[in-house]
Amino acid sequence: MIKKKLSEKNVEKFLLENPDFFINNSQLLNKLSFPSEKIHKKQTKIISYKDWIIQSLKIKQKSIIDNAKYNFFTQKKVLECSLKILKTEELKKFLNFLCYECPGIFDLEVINIISCDKNFTQKFNLIFKEEKIISQVFDCNKYLILDAVDENLNLFSDFDSKIYSNAIFSLDIEILNSPMLLVYGSKDNHFLSNKAFDLIFYLSKVIEKKLIDLV
């Protein structure tokens, strides 16, 4: 019995570590026995393999449809927002639109710029943080991060709402000759997946280009 239990655990461990095993060895499925609805009618904890497959496919299909729908509406918002940004010719109007109107468009709590230039942040009501704080996140390759908020950095400490997840884009260092971050903040798990990563990256590049043109 002990040997059997150990063997079952090893099999389970192997399958979990190799989720594509049956895809790569599909011929084995014909040699295995799976729960049958007819045989196990009285055992409520048993579900048939066919039902499990159908349910799994339904869940995957729903996830694909939900993601496609989300990306469609997000893409529409990003394109409309990008057009407004590109048409704006004054820095103050551009930053006001970015920080005060864009969060509502994307159902976010925060869209803002973090800089260590105190004069610049005070003049346009942006977020000031010491350069040593910004440098912990800043990437000169203009990288985009989607993750849970790092409480140790206190990037969103100036806001009343609790920010749970964020997207952080490292802006071109030559804009102010110092590291700057474009941040998107959400009070839920909005940025805990790579959903719409490309769209956020695209919008960030549009914003960066406008900053380069106007600053």
Question: What characteristics describe this protein?
Answer:
alpha+beta; 2 domains; Beta-Lactamase; 215 residues; 12% strand; five-stranded mixed sheet; elongated
* Morphology: elongated
Count the domains. Answer: 2
Mean pLDDT comes to: 83
Strand order of the largest sheet: 2-1-5-4-3
Low-confidence stretches: none
Order of helices and strands: HHHHEHEHEEEH
Please identify the top-level CATH class of the largest domain: Alpha Beta
Q: Specify the helix fraction band.
A: 40-55%
Describe this structure in words.
- With 215 residues, the chain is of the alpha+beta class.
- Helix content is 48%, strand content 12%.
- It has 7 helices and 5 strands, in the order H-H-H-H-E-H-E-H-E-E-E-H.
- Strands 2-1-5-4-3 form a 5-stranded mixed beta sheet, with helices on one face.
- It is elongated and about 70 Å long.
- It starts with a helix and ends with a helix.
- The mean pLDDT is 83.
Give a quick rundown of the structure:
By secondary structure, the protein is of the alpha+beta class. The protein is built from seven helices and five strands.
